[in-house]
Amino acid sequence: MHLRAVGRLAGRSEERALVDDYLARFGQTGRGLGWRFGGETEVEDKKNGGMAAEAALLRASIPAGSLIVCLDERGVLMSSPEFSRKLQAWADQGVPDVSFVIGGADGIDPSLRAQADALLSFGKMVWPHKLVRVMVAEQLYRAASIIAGSPYHRD
Predict the structure, then answer these.
(1) FRET pair for 120, CA 20 to 30 Å: which of 12, 80, 89, 130?
(2) pLDDT digits 0-9 by tens, 128-139
(3) Does the structure show a pLDDT above 70 at 155?
(4) Candidate CATH numbers 3.40.1280.10, 3.90.650.10, 3.60.15.10, 1.10.1040.10; the one for domain 2-148
(5) Exposure b/e, 8-32, CB count within 10 A at least 16 = b
(6) What are the Cα distances from residue 8, in Å, to 15, 44, 84, 115, 147?
(7) What's the CA gap between 148 and 144, in Å, rounded?
């Protein structure tokens, strides 16, 4: 699993601390499931080329053969158990890698959204990309906890 995002989290920010904490937990819990976190890539369009330029940077960061999941308010709404079952199904199908993609302030370029294997939404509201990154990290950990039978997630 990879995380690809437009923008940078400050090294000492609360968001960075939360992302790092949840990804470390995911690493520990996911290891027993054969899941691992492959890394986080932050991209910045320093030339202000807009969503198309951000999409090009994001595409360049996605490993070949990776399943692309774009976080988008138009995406599918899932419960945490549904999300965990989706991750497990991809693993069972032999999907070698999943890249979760988070756009910038204007969202994800339509061409990248169209290229995605899945669109995932955290609700109809638009969330700041920094918080979406925290939410993805937490949901990865929660999904691993659900599959592993950990008490972290309670129905």
Answers:
(1) 12
(2) 989 999 999 999
(3) no
(4) 3.40.1280.10
(5) ebeeeeebbebbeebbebbbebbee
(6) 10, 8, 27, 24, 31
(7) 6
